[in-house]
């Protein structure tokens, strides 16, 4: 599986185009906006978009979901149903953060811990990792040891927990009990900023490193 990061919106959110190299079938993870940029990347790579995947429903990750799904006539998978209230509040979110007006949507499929998502011949494992939002999920591709972690963890930092439904202890537990056990070698693509590995963060991240006990 291949991955291409497409920074979108004024928040420079890491929307990710991922695809199966054998079939050229693709998914877009977290289309926060800038649909033209996303469409251009799909065309440049010569791919067929099969679905939209969401880690969570904050505006900078989900703002372009309805438009992209409608334009390509593809299903929406994720996040976990715990983020329904964020989806229902997308219009309010767009006003609050100065985003263009967006349409709300209903996921074709809510995702739960242990589910799997297919992209061509490739499979992504779903981990429910609440804390940043109640319904946040992470997508893990075992074969390439790559995780799409949304806003759960970043290089040197972790997701905010001061928004409605956020929970700091839940977030720490998600990172330590769900993500770190996947392996130190796993590279993750966060919702913002540069990629890192779980091993590097386990050693150095001031919020969740082993040194914190």
Automatic annotation (TrEMBL):
The keyword Glycoprotein does not apply. Its cofactor is Zn(2+). It comes from the Bacteria. GO terms for molecular function: hydrolase activity; metal ion binding. Pfam families: Lactamase_B (PF00753). SUPFAM superfamilies: Metallo-hydrolase/oxidoreductase. Residues 12-192 form the Metallo-beta-lactamase domain. InterPro entries: MBL_Glyoxalase_II, Metallo-B-lactamas, RibonucZ/Hydroxyglut_hydro. Keywords: Hydrolase, Metal-binding, Zinc. This is MBL fold metallo-hydrolase. The lineage of its organism: Bacteria, Pseudomonadati, Pseudomonadota, Gammaproteobacteria, Oceanospirillales.
